[in-house]
Design goal:
heterodimer, A: 429 residues, Aspartate Aminotransferase, domain 2, four-stranded antiparallel sheet, disordered N terminus, B: 158 residues, alpha+beta, Sufe protein. Chain: A, 3 strands, 41% helix, globular
C-alpha cells in the first residue's frame, strides 16, 4: 500500500478497478500501526472487527492533515479554507456514492452511524407512512439498531412488527415468506449480514417480493458493506445504512443512502442550521438534498478521512476482500469446530456467511473465555452482541465472537485455536 | 488488564464455580430477588427462607461467568444460618471490598478474600458484585414490605 498521502490526497482518490486478487495480509498489516503492539506480553491478535476495525495509516494521517491544513466549517464560509473543506467533505460523498454502486451523490446522507441512519428513516419516512394495522417485517437476527426503532414505531403507530424466523443452521426460514410479505407490509427492514451468525440473507430476492406488495425495503449494511462488494441498485433496496468505523474509517460517521424520490418526500429529522432554505419567524422551508438531512455542523474531519478508508478498500478491491475473508473464515470455522466443547453458531459454509464467528463453550461463560483470551493478547467480543431476541432463540445468554478482517492471518487463527484448547485445560475441562 | 489471570481464577473460585453451593431449590420462599447484568448476559435469581430474623435457607440460581457463579456460591455458603443484621453487614463489606474500599469481612469468610483478585479486572467487578447487590436489594424490599419485579443490575452503578 502507499504510504501517507499529502493534503491533495484528501480530495482526489480515483477509484481503481482491479481483478480479484490474493491479498497479502502481512503487507496489509504493515499499514496498521495499532496492530504492532503487545498486550499482556503477547502480540496483539485483534479479532473484534465486527465491533470496529482498526485504521490504516492513511486514515489516521488524513484526520491529522485535515486539522493541520483544511479545518473550517463547510457550506457557509466564503473564505478559501471553508471552500476547501466543503470540497473535501463533498468529495467523500461522491466517493461513497460510487462505492455502493454508482448512486446519485445527493442521495447519500452523512449521519453519526448506522443506528443514526436507521432512526432517521424510522422518525421521518416511517413516521409519515406507517399506520395502525400496517406491518413492519424484520428478521429474528436483527441487531438492536434495526430492531428497537421498529419496536417503538409499532408501539407509536399501533402497527404490527413481524419477524422472518431463522432455521437451526442460522439461515432465514422462508417457508412462510409469502404470508409474511403481504399487502399490509409497509416496510421490510433487514440485515445484509448478521453480526452474530454471519449469515448473509437473500436481500435482493426478498426486496423484490416486498416491492411487489408495495413495501419499502431498508438494508442494514453495517456488517456487509465493509466485507463484500455492495451495489444498492442491484440489491434493490430503497434505503441502505452503514458505518464508516467498521470499514477502516473513523468513528462517528454513518451513511444513509435512500432513493431520491423517497428522500424528497421525507421531512427532515434534525432541525436547525444547515438544513434550511428560508427561515422566517412563522415559516421555514427546507434545504435541498442532502443538506435537508444534515442539520448542524457535521463530523467534517471524520467524513473527510473516511475517503482515505474507501480509497484503501478500492485499492484492495472489494471482490478481493470478500475472497480473502471467505478463505480466512472457512479456515477459522474448521479450526474452531474441531475443538472439543466448542460449538459454533451460524452457517458453517464461509461462502454463505461473513467473518463474524459466534461460539460457545459447553462449560465456560463467554466472559471467562474473553478474559482468558485477553490475557493471551487476543481481543474478541463476548456478550449478547446487541441481539438479545436472537440470543433467547438460540437458548444462550451470551456468546463469544471472533471476527476477522483483511489484516488477520491464518497464524492468528491457529493461535486462537491453540489458546482455546489451553484455556479448557486451565479450567480443568 | 493489570492483574495476572491466576489472581482472578484462584483455585477456590474455580471450585465454587464447578460445584456451586446453594444451588438446590428450597422449601419455603420468603424473599426473592432477581439480578442481571444485561451486557454480560449474567442472570441471577436468589431465594431466601427467613425464620426468626435469620436466613434459614438459601437458593442461588446463577447463569453466568465463573466469577458471578462463584460469588453467588460464596454468598449462599456465608448467609445460611446467619441473622439478617449480620448478613446485611457482610454483604455491605463485600460490596466495599470489591470496590476497593476499606471493608471488615467476617472471620469465617476466607473464601471471599479470593474474590479480591477480581479488583484487578475492572470490567469483571460487576460480575462479582451481582449476587451481593441482588441480595442487598432483596433484603431492602423485604424490610420495606414491597414486592418488586424489578431486576437489580451492577452495571452503570455509582
Amino acid at each position: 500500500m502507499s504510504t501517507q498521502p499529502d493534503t491533495s490526497g484528501l480530495n482526489s482518490h480515483a477509484v481503481t478497478l482491479r481483478e480479484p486478487r490474493r491479498l497479502d495480509s502481512e503487507k496489509i498489516r504493515a499499514d496498521f500501526p495499532i496492530l504492532h503492539q503487545r498486550i499482556g506480553g503477547h502480540p496483539l491478535v485483534y479479532l473484534d472487527n465486527a465491533a470496529t476495525t482498526q485504521k490504516p495509516r492513511e486514515v489516521i494521517n488524513a484526520i491529522i492533515e485535515y486539522y493541520r491544513k483544511l479545518n473550517a466549517n463547510i457550506h457557509r464560509g466564503l473564505h478559501t479554507l471553508s471552500e476547501r473543506s466543503t470540497e473535501a467533505y463533498e468529495h467523500t460523498r461522491e466517493h461513497v456514492a460510487q462505492f455502493i454502486g454508482g448512486v446519485k451523490p445527493h442521495e447519500v446522507i452523512f449521519t453519526g452511524g448506522t443506528t443514526d441512519s436507521i432512526n432517521l428513516v424510522a422518525y421521518t419516512w416511517a413516521e409519515q407512512n406507517v399506520k395502525a394495522g400496517d406491518e413492519i417485517l424484520i428478521t429474528q437476527m436483527e441487531h438492536h439498531a434495526n430492531l428497537v426503532p421498529w419496536v417503538k414505531l409499532a408501539e407509536r403507530k399501533q402497527a404490527v412488527l413481524r419477524q422472518i424466523p431463522i432455521t437451526i443452521c442460522g439461515h432465514l426460514d422462508l417457508s412462510s415468506i409469502d404470508e409474511l410479505i403481504n399487502r399490509r407490509t409497509k416496510l421490510l427492514a433487514i440485515t445484509h449480514m448478521s453480526n452474530v451468525l454471519g449469515t448473509v440473507p437473500p436481500v435482493a430476492e426478498l426486496a423484490e417480493k416486498a416491492h411487489k406488495v408495495g413495501a419499502i425495503v431498508l438494508g442494514d449494511g453495517a456488517q456487509a458493506a465493509p466485507h463484500m462488494p455492495v451495489n444498492v441498485l442491484e440489491l434493490g433496496v430503497d434505503f441502505y445504512a452503514f458505518s464508516a468505523h467498521k470499514m477502516l474509517g473513523p468513528t462517528g460517521v454513518g451513511i444513509l443512502w435512500g432513493r431520491e424520490e423517497l428522500l424528497e418526500r421525507m421531512p427532515p429529522f434534525i432541525l436547525g442550521g444547515e438544513m434550511i432554505s428560508q427561515v422566517h419567524f412563522d415559516k421555514v422551508t427546507w434545504a435541498e438534498l442532502p443538506n435537508k438531512f444534515e442539520g448542524g455542523t457535521p463530523n467534517i474531519a471524520d467524513v473527510v478521512a473516511f475517503d482515505a478508508a474507501l480509497h484503501y478498500l478500492d485499492n484492495l478491491g472489494m471482490d478481493a476482500v470478500r475472497r480473502r475473508e471467505i478463505e480466512l473464515t472457512q479456515y477459522a470455522l474448521d479450526k474452531l469446530s474441531a475443538i472439543e466443547g466448542i460449538d459454533i453458531q451460524g452457517p458453517m459454509d464461509a461462502a454463505q456467511r461473513g467473518g463474524a464467528i459466534s461460539f460457545t463453550d459447553s462449560q465456560l461463560h463467554p466472559h471467562d473465555i474473553s478474559t482468558w483470551l485477553d490475557s493471551k493478547g487476543i481481543a474478541i467480543r463476548a456478550g449478547h452482541h446487541c441481539a438479545q431476541p436472537l440470543m433467547r432463540l438460540m437458548g444462550k445468554v451470551a456468546t463469544a465472537r471472533a471476527s476477522v478482517y483483511i489484516y488477520n492471518t491464518k497464524a492468528e487463527i491457529d493461535y486462537l485455536a491453540n489458546m482455546l484448547k489451553e484455556m479448557r485445560s486451565y479450567f480443568g475441562l | 488488564m493489570s492483574g495476572s489471570l491466576d489472581d482472578m481464577y484462584r483455585e477456590i473460585i474455580l471450585d465454587h464455580y464447578r460445584s456451586p453451593r446453594g444451588n438446590k431449590p428450597i422449601g419455603r420462599i420468603d424473599i426473592t430477588s432477581a439480578g442481571s447484568n444485561p451486557s454480560c448476559g449474567d442472570e441471577l435469581n436468589l431465594e431466601l427462607e427467613i425464620e426468626d430474623e435469620k436466613v434459614k435457607d438459601v437458593h442461588v440460581d446463577c447463569r453466568g461467568c465463573a466469577i458471578s457463579v462463584a460469588s453467588g456460591s460464596m454468598l449462599a455458603e456465608l448467609v445460611k444460618g446467619k441473622s439478617i443484621d449480620e448478613v446485611k453487614r457482610t454483604a455491605e463489606a463485600v460490596r466495599r471490598m470489591l470496590k476497593g474500599e476499606h471493608a471488615d469481612l467476617p472471620e469465617d469468610s476466607e473464601d471471599l478474600e479470593a474474590l479480591q483478585g477480581v479488583r484487578n479486572f475492572p470490567v469483571r467487578v460487576k460480575c462479582a458484585l451481582l449476587a451481593w447487590v441482588t441480595f442487598i436489594q432483596g433484603i431492602k424490599n423485604w424490610e420495606a414490605g414491597t414486592i418488586t419485579n424489578k431486576t437489580t443490575s451492577t452495571e452503570n452503578t455509582e
